[in-house]
């Protein structure tokens, strides 16, 4: 383990071997980033714990980094912002398309469907208004021919 060659982690490999059961429980945890590290390793700094997590459970780094940022900088840096989809849609067009960069927990489908429903109903309303205007124009034009 390369981490154990650093001074702060010099006995990590030995402690893992000596307390295999507690380390196994930690490593096999569903959310190890929420668990306390075994033995004195729980007293390491947040950055050192992050380094150990990187070695033992790289698959959980996204969550561990999120927790690290929240602990060190505050929750406002990890809270997702709600997208003002209507404004973004209004600013888009044929020359300015919208792109969605998806990440875990983000699904813009509902916003897209809602906007499509609004656009569809608006389009239907406009179509009805156009039909009524055309009908009125045709009637008035027809009437004009009758009076000529």
From TrEMBL:
Highest taxon listed in the record's lineage: Eukaryota
InterPro entries (alphabetical): DHC, P-loop_NTPase
PANTHER family: DYNEIN AXONEMAL HEAVY CHAIN 17-RELATED (PTHR46961:SF16), DYNEIN HEAVY CHAIN 1, AXONEMAL-LIKE PROTEIN (PTHR46961)
Protein name: Dynein, axonemal, heavy chain 9
């Amino acid at each position: 383990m390369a981490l154990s060659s650093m001074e702060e982690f010099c006995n990590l490999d030995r402690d893992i071997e000596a307390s295999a059961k507690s380390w196994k429980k930690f490593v096999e945890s569903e959310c190890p980033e929420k668990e306390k590290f075994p033995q004195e390793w729980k007293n390491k700094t947040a950055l050192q714990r992050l380094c150990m997590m990187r070695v033992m459970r790289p698959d959980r780094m996204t969550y561990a980094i999120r927790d690290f940022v929240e602990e060190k900088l505050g929750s406002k840096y990890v809270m997702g912002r709600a997208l003002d989809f209507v404004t973004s849609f209004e600013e888009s067009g044929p020359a300015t398309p919208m792109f969605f960069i998806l990440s875990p927990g983000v699904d813009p489908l509902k916003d897209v469907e809602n906007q499509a429903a609004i656009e569809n109903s608006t389009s239907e309303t406009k179509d009805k208004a156009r039909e009524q205007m055309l009908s009125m124009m045709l009637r008035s034009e027809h009437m004009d021919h009758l009076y000529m």
